[in-house]
Specification:
One of its GO terms (molecular function) is nickel cation binding. Its cofactor is Fe cation; Ni(2+). Keywords: Iron, Magnesium, Metal-binding, Nickel, Oxidoreductase. The protein has 410 residues and is α+β, with helices and mostly antiparallel strands. It is built from 18 helices and eight strands.
């Protein structure tokens, strides 16, 4: 009888399509028994060439394309892209439109965090909580539909403002939704943070230290859960955030210490829901301007003409539900942008997987992977396919290619 027994360590591939993963990505784990010794991952499975398509359209058309980069945080991408184009073209957005953009960004944060909370509960095998989280998320989608006409791909942001106003007759319905979430906060905190199973599975699991979070350049709730005070809304205010009174949510707001584990990431996201409610309330209370004053230029030919005359480059930054999202736009006085690049927040956070998965148990892979709230549809910007071969680019090769690409822009 031949000895086919394999000795540790051995490799386990998970993905690119796997029930434990919500989007396509390939993980390769080096295991010793049940313990993860090393991990590697290969993204690029859902590249759709959106930037390529955008560079063949005018900025007004691209706005609707940015809405489709992600089915969860569409406003984030339209907001960031519009900010970049408006800087290049010297377009001044009406103050009222800035407030409406802020309201939409915070409603999106609420529905995104609740969607993540449901996914996290599911990954822990707690499907009753999954169903509850996704049921209460419906209210945020309902009110978004009430304001924009759409539950997904809202289509509300336009270059130079927004396409729909929020009038006083709509405020009672929005207030109703905000009160609904205020009444749920204590229940959500109790269910997610006081449950014995969640405590046992998440405390001390998937730890990302403050030092590692800083060195890996993590952003958003993933960084704040490790104690880093990074939030674009406060560090570089945009929209109406400069007029709003709020502070960053860190684990110390609820716990006595910061551990940077999965549990702390739950704390930050749950507590950011009432924070968003407070921001929306302040925006509604102090909404400036006259009703209807929501666009820099309502005449489309004039807006397109202003974009066509624009030359230069700019970066649009916003704080997405998952962290900082960046859109780079370069225009050369033409119909379409000369260059458009997107850096989604998961691009910054995904390297944390290498740190937080090492030394953990195989059964905890789903919840630890989900704990950074990854979105590969936002992130995948390129897909490399070679027939029957693989290639690894070194740091020097990537640097040389980057320099050559930059020189080619001039």
């Amino acid at each position: 009888m031949s000895d086919n027994k394999k000795n540790a360590p051995y490799k386990i591939p998970i993905g690119p399509i796997h029930p434990a993963l919500k989007e396509p990505i390939l993980f390769t784990f080096k295991m010793n028994g049940e313990v993860i010794e090393e991990v590697d991952f290969s993204p690029g499975k859902v590249h759709r060439g959106i930037e390529w398509m955008g560079m063949r359209r005018n900025p007004v058309q691209i706005v609707h394309l940015t809405d489709r980069i992600c089915g969860i945080c569409g406003v984030t991408h339209t907001f960031a892209f519009s900010r970049a184009v408006e800087q290049v073209a010297g377009i001044r957005v009406p103050e009222r439109a800035q407030y409406i953009r802020t309201i939409m960004a915070e409603l999106e944060r609420i529905q995104s965090h609740l969607l993540w909370a449901g996914v996290a509960a599911h990954e822990l095998g707690f499907d009753t909580l999954f169903n509850l989280a996704w049921r209460v998320r419906e209210e945020s989608l309902d009110v978004i539909e009430y304001i924009t006409g759409n539950r997904i791909n809202y289509g509300i942001i336009q270059i130079g403002g927004v396409r729909r106003d929020i009038v006083k007759e709509q405020i009672p319905r929005i207030e109703e939704a905000l009160s609904y979430y205020e009444g749920l906060v204590d229940k959500m905190l109790k269910l997610f943070l006081h449950d014995k199973t969640i405590n046992m599975r998440c405390r001390g699991s998937g730890i990302l230290t403050k030092k590692a979070a800083l060195e890996l350049c993590t952003v958003g709730p993933t960084a704040r859960a490790s104690g880093l005070k990074f939030d674009v809304r406060i560090d570089s205010p945009y929209g109406a955030y400069g007029d709003i009174d709020f502070d960053m949510v860190l684990p110390e707001c609820y716990l006595s210490e910061t551990n940077g584990d999965v549990y702390d990431r739950i704390v930050v996201r749950i507590l950011e829901i009432p924070q968003s409610v407070s921001i929306i309330r302040q925006c509604l209370k102090n909404m400036p301007g006259e009703e209807g004053d929501i666009l820099w230029e309502p005449k489309m030919p004039k807006l397109l003409s202003a974009c066509k005359k624009a030359g230069g480059e700019a970066v649009g930054r916003v704080e997405a539900p998952r962290g900082e999202c960046i859109h780079y736009v370069r225009m050369k006085k033409a119909d379409a942008p000369y260059m458009w690049k997107v850096k989604a927040s998961t691009y910054s956070n995904q390297l944390a997987w290498l740190e937080i998965l090492k030394g953990e148990q195989i059964a905890d892979i789903p919840i630890i992977v989900a704990s950074i709230d990854p979105c590969m549809s936002c992130t995948d910007r390129v897909s490399v396919i070679r027939k029957n071969s693989s290639e690894i680019f070194t740091k020097e090769q990537l640097h040389r290619m980057s320099v050559e690409k930059t020189r080619g822009l001039n």
